[in-house]
Amino acid sequence: MIAEDAGAIGTMRLVIGDIHGCLTAFETMMAVVGPGRDDLVVTLGDYVDRGPDSRGVIEMLLAMKDTHRLVTLMGNHEIQMIRALETQRDRERFLSGLCGGQDTLDSYGGGFEDVPEEHWEFIRGTKLYHELEDYILVHAGVEAEVPVAEQDQETYYYQRFYSQRPHDSGKTVVCGHTIQGDLPTNSGYAICLDTCAYGGGWLSALDLDSGRIWQTNEAGKWRGLDLGDLPVGS
């Protein structure tokens, strides 16, 4: 059910899916949801590549560290950007159309040398996962039988949502990385929030406590629904 307005809500734990340089969608999300200083905001990674303003997204996240309880996770596009400085093969992959890294560099001025050191520090300082009493928050996913802290690091970045199984901890996994359709997907034991913000789709966010979902796009539009409106197992 699509809501007509955001409405007033209390303290929340807000999880935001893959932003991919979509600054307008991200700004709209923050304006519509309006998380306060006491609210937890967790971003699931993939801040850079493909969208028009990766630099602006990171600048906004840096500013939010002073105004919000912000936890930023690392996505595969952040690790690819870091690795692009290490080998020629990784650089070529990052700059290919497959990854979209040139879009990121263009937002800075065109080259790796144009990225401020503060932004490199931000990218390198993002977390692999964030574990709560009842949720595992991670960019891509986790292996079901492996404790969260003992996963192969590539799993945090690259596991596909269709491979996710109920984790042995009993906690619900909330992730991005694997593009869904127009809406997030709820399997009952895992929720995927990647709804392709950069490709004409939506940036999706979920309040873990109320089950409220917001979606915003690069046109500055937004809509809302509840987690319970999604078919479980879709």
Keywords:
alpha/beta, five-stranded mixed sheet, Purple Acid Phosphatase, chain A, domain 2, 234 residues, seven-stranded mixed sheet
Description:
With 234 residues, this protein is an alpha/beta fold. The protein has a domain at 25-129 and 180-229: Metallo-dependent phosphatases (Purple Acid Phosphatase, chain A, domain 2). The protein contains seven helices and twelve strands. It has helices spanning 23-33, 54-64, 76-83, 88-95, 101-108, 117-124, 153-158; strands spanning 13-16, 40-43, 69-72, 129-131, 135-138, 172-175, 185-186, 190-192, 194-195, 202-207, 212-216, 222-226. The strands form two sheets. Strands 1, 2, 3, 9, 10, 11 and 12 form a seven-stranded mixed beta sheet that branches. Strands 4-5-6-8-7 form a five-stranded mixed beta sheet, with no helix packed on it. Helix 1 links the parallel strand 1 (13-16) and strand 2 (40-43). Residues 1-9 have low confidence and may be disordered.
